[in-house]
Amino acid sequence: MKKPWAGRFTEKTSKSVEDFTESISFDKKLWKYDIEGSIAHAKMLSKQGIISKRDSGRIVRGLKDIWTEIEEGRFRFREELEDIHMNIEAALIKKVGDAGGMLHTARSRNDQVALDLRLYVRASVEEIIGLLRRLETVLADLADGTLGIVMPGYTHTQRAQPVLLAHHVMAYAQMFRRDRMRFGDALKRINVLPLGSCALAGTGLPIDRQYVASLLKFDSVSDNSMDSVSDRDFALEFLSCAAVLMMHVSRMAEEMVLWSSEEFGFVEIADAFATGSSIMPQKKNPDVAELMRGKTGRVYGNLMSLLTVMKGLPMTYNRDMQEDKEPLFDTADTLRAVLSILPEMLKNMTFDAARLRQSSDAAFSTATDIAEYLVNKGLPFRTAHEITGKIVRFCLDNGKQLHDLDLESYRLFSPKIEKDVFDVISSSASVNAKKSYGGTSPTAVKAQIKRFRNSLK
Predict the structure, then answer these.
(1) I want to staple 303 with a disulfide (CB 3.0 to 4.6 A). Which of 46, 111, 239, 290 is the partner?
(2) Are 435 and 286 contained in the same domain?
């Protein structure tokens, strides 16, 4: 098949140029969306009387045959035809003759690829939203099942205050909920039809872009033909949302790695979701969590890659933009893989409740509760804070924990302290006291889980 631009050129394209510029090796992933868009375009051309109903029907039937051939693995993608658009168009012309050559009326590969990408990103976002919803449900179930477990909460990676494990789990649920909402919001800007913008200036033919939008379920039609073919903001927004999501995944994965170590011993990852060592027989490695943490880097890199491609491009379409696809495809594939395995891994973890409680009782994690106890006795918080700090210093100097001190020792620091201080220094008492909205008491966490489940509906 001749190149679409053969009329202007006197020499054939060099084989080395064909090898360098081809994109079919990766953009064949867009075949489904390219055919969907072409079918809608053919129907619109017929509706508007630009091509005959007969030719439109032949085009649509031919495209559906090509769809079947690709699905069944019988279609041959040819590098010399550069990209998915020309591969499908060449196959169509071979099937239906001159009618196939009419399909490219009132469109360019510039608006065609913008359409294909938007369809691909839209489908990917819808799938990712579904996977996130499943992950959120698993986290809510995990929180429900761990409501009775107290653990140390951390700041600066130092033990800070006791919290419910369920509260910690729900913190991640909230992160992933924001991710789902972020992707959902991005759909508003993704779901805009660019087709009909042609190369950059639109067309003088009487096309109906709104009709195409309705066929392809787009919410709106792009307003500026130049912006339509040069815009990759929707792809960048997808990659940005993906980067934030993977940051959340990586934070969770980091804790899985730490918590499953012997030094922490908080959680046991199921054997099915871990690997061993080729030389050390005793090892059980959290490789799945480590890989999720590692894959975050490639998603960040994909975002930076496309930002860099786009940063210096003049209006409108430039061939540099061919470099948008591989980062986009890789990110979507990575998210699908991570969001598929993460819920299964979470469902197959076992927490050591005794170890978690033991850790939460240590390291003076209820010191803040003593300070609040003194506030309730009428002291200013700063005064209460200083007194409590002195109590902690006394314990450190004497090798004691807060629960080791008797009332007489406590009263050395303030006459306000009475025997009811022992009601606030246990980790359970500390957790139960945090009844503020969004706090870590069992009542507050149960209410949080209920609100969260309602939001999933």
Answers:
(1) 239
(2) no
**Is 156 among the catalytic positions?**
yes
Residue 293 near residue 254 (C-beta atoms within 8 A): yes
Mean pLDDT in residue range 368-388: 95
Residue 12 banded pLDDT, cuts 50, 70, 90:
confident
Q: And the tokens for 442?
A: 């069992």
Single out the catalytic residue among 52, 277, 340, 403.
Answer: 277
Indicate the residue type of 60: V
At 218 the three-state DSSP class reads coil
Cα–Cα dist 212/229, whole Å: 17
Model confidence pLDDT, tens digit, residues 189-241: 999 999 999 999 999 999 999 999 999 999 999 999 999 999 999 999 999 99
Measure the CA–CA gap between 439 and 170, rounded to whole angstroms. 11
Q: Which domain holds residue 315?
A: 110-146+165-354
Annotated catalytic, 277? yes
Q: Count Cβ atoms below 10 Å from residue 403 Cβ, excluding itself.
A: 12
Rounded Cα–Cα distance for residues 184 and 190 (Å) = 10
| Same-domain pairing of 409 and 265 | no
Angle at Cα 442 formed by Cα 440 and Cα 445, nearest 5°? 60
